[in-house]
Amino acid sequence: MLGVTWWNTGGLYFLSLLGGAAGAALVVTLVGRALIRMSGPPLVGRRPSTIDLAYLKGGPGLAALACAVGLQRTAAVNRGPMLTLDVTGPLPAGAPPLMAAIHARLREPCAWLQVLADPQVRAAAGRLHRKLVRRGLLASDARRRWARLTTVPLWAVTALGLVRLASLVGNGAEAGRGATAGIVVVTCATALAGWLLLPAPWLTRGGRSTLRQAAADLRDVGARREGGREPSARELMRAVAVRGPDELVAVDPVFGDAVGAHRRPRPAPPVRIFSWEYNRYL
């Protein structure tokens, strides 16, 4: 009886209830995601390698790029004609499985996109992903499902708003009131919040702290490069793994073109229109 009375209330009263439920659902979702984000499995194993850091930073694409940098700097591969890559030397000793798979694929000259699509390279990247999950640096599938399930309250409120709006289809007098527009806004805003919070993070707390520590340790390497000394293969691989492809472009833009790493244009400075406003799109 109470539920029927609550459902049959006026539009403004229902809007206030819906807004309160949406706010409570958002708080529950954020708290749940924060708890999942702050907690995490303990780190297992030794210190992550450079290829591990590249995978944590940019996934399989950046990990493969770091491997290609290591192969190129040790004269194992180099750029061929028409933006292709070719093997020019033996595989370095102690190379990780992903680097070995890339070297094996390049025994037949091909473009970088063909390397990334190779089944053996993808399989090696998958094994690397599972290893990082076991070591507690990447979130497992179950953990990511729990993170997505925290948005259930938001979707429940969205469904409640949609059902209410559907019930007003045959009631023109009630649908024409201003409260109905408010219900539409709250429902759409709740659905948008649920959609934005639906993607689950890949990195665990240990993975994020590992990347922060690696970035802090890399500052001295950047200072030595600015001093005019050419970075070694290990240093350049580390810089690419932690900072991204721009480090390769700054050192070797020709090889960067072959592996799809291009220099990104600098953003235009903001144009001042009023004394209190800046437009970053002009």
TrEMBL record:
Keyword Membrane in record: yes
Protein's name according to its UniProt entry: TIGR04222 domain-containing membrane protein
Species of the source: Asanoa iriomotensis
Transmembrane feature ranges: 12-36, 152-173, 179-198
Keywords per UniProt: Membrane, Transmembrane, Transmembrane helix
Top-rank taxon: Bacteria
InterPro entries in UniProt: Ser/Gly_Cys_C_dom (IPR026467)
